[in-house]
Amino acid sequence: MDNVTPLGGDVYEIDTKMAGYTGITAGYLILGDRPCLVETGTSTSAPVVRDALTSLGVGPDDLATVVVTHIHLDHAGGVGDIAGFYPRAEIVVHEKGARHLANPARLMASARMVWGDQLDVLFGTLSPTDASRIHALGDTGAIDLGGGRTLNSHYSPGHAKHHVGLLDSATGDLYVGDAAGVYLPETGDLRPATPPPDFDLRTALDSVALFGALGPQRLLFSHYGPVADVTATLERSAEELRVWVDLTRQAHTEGLDLDHAVAMVRDRTRERYAASTSDDEAVRERFEMLSGAPSNVAGILHWLDTTKPEA
Q1: Side by side, which strands form the sheet with 149-155?
Q2: N or C end of the chain, less CB within 10 A?
Q3: pTM of this prediction?
Q4: pLDDT in tens, 236-245
Q5: What would the pLDDT profile of 296-307 be if each residue is shown by its tens digit?
Q6: Confidence bin at 123 (pLDDT 50/70/90)
Q7: Concatenated DSSP letters of 17-78
């Protein structure tokens, strides 16, 4: 299939074709004795993911585990649908997100407030998962991939309070979710993901540092794809967080409202990213969808308003 890319180590990247776009959100299948899907994508992406798994020989009774890095709808919106397609699969999520997968009403209502009518087009509806099938992770945990191979979870908030990173014991792959930001493979750009309401700078930087301390061999971004230069990429991730916070703090100090703060930050970060100056409108549009300046600035302003952090 054109949306399945082998990455080595029995790992396959799946383009979930979010909202019909390519290169927005990746899911990953780890094949082996106990096949595991990392990230489902959105609800509307669930049939795309199912077809990809079928093409890789994973039938309805074969998938052992579904694990999500966090419960934002571009990562976990398809959990209920995928759980229905694969009735034997255990659903794994951090304990702070587990109840929302069992009863998504509050999560969906919150998302509707943010996205309005766009919600249905971009994400669809997260269906509930039977609570008996959900395994809630603590700050660390291990997922059995079979044959002595494990996927080890590490609590990594800052982007979201229910976020985990996942380290494959066999390959050294670290599934970073959104905690290290978003990556655009066409240009090599890396930009932070700092949406409200959970963003916290210190916690986010601590999570990036934790990722480095785990010593991964490769980073697998949900947005989007594999990156082999681990140290430089994590250093850039921390740098981008500081740059966006410093600029947003300046706008906040000057009393700018959200629209003016976004305009200022967008203007002053433009030259940092090749995608921002690309002649390819599709690349520019995808980068903004992956890590929109309004969402990033709003999350940082919310943090500034609620915590009154020191400079």
Answers
A1: 140-146, 149-155, 164-168, 173-177, 218-221, 225-227
A2: C
A3: 0.95
A4: 999 999 999 9
A5: 999 999 999 988
A6: confident
A7: -GGG-SSS-EEEEE-SSS-EEE----TTTHHHHHHHHHHTT--TTT--EEE-S---HHHHTT
Q: Which residues lie closer than 8 Å to 21 by C-beta, 6 or more apart?
A: 286, 289
Contact 175, 163 (CB under 8 A): no
The one-letter amino acid at 289: M
Cβ atoms of 297 and 262 within 8 Å: the answer is: yes
- Residue 288 located in a structural domain: no
Q: Is residue 211 part of a domain?
A: yes
Token pair, residue 98, equals 């587990």
- Hey, what are 183's tokens? 């990556």
Q: Which CATH number do you get for residue 79?
A: 3.60.15.10
What letters, b where the CB count within 10 A reaches 16 and e where it falls short, cover 45-70?
bbebbbebbeebebeeebbbbbbbbb
End-to-end CA distance of the chain: 50
What range defines the domain where residue 65 resides? Answer: 4-239
Listed in sequence order, the residues at least 6 apart from 183 whose beta carbon sits closer than 8 Å to its beta carbon are: 189, 190, 221, 223, 224, 225, 227, 233
Cβ proximity of 90 and 66 under 8 Å: yes
How do 218-221 and 173-177 pair as beta strands? parallel
Residue 114 tokens read as 């943010």
For residue 206, count other CB atoms closer than 10 A to its CB.
14
Report the distance separating Cα 60 and Cα 64, nearest Å: 10
- 22: number of Cβ within 10 Å: 13
The answer as to whether 267 is a domain residue is: no
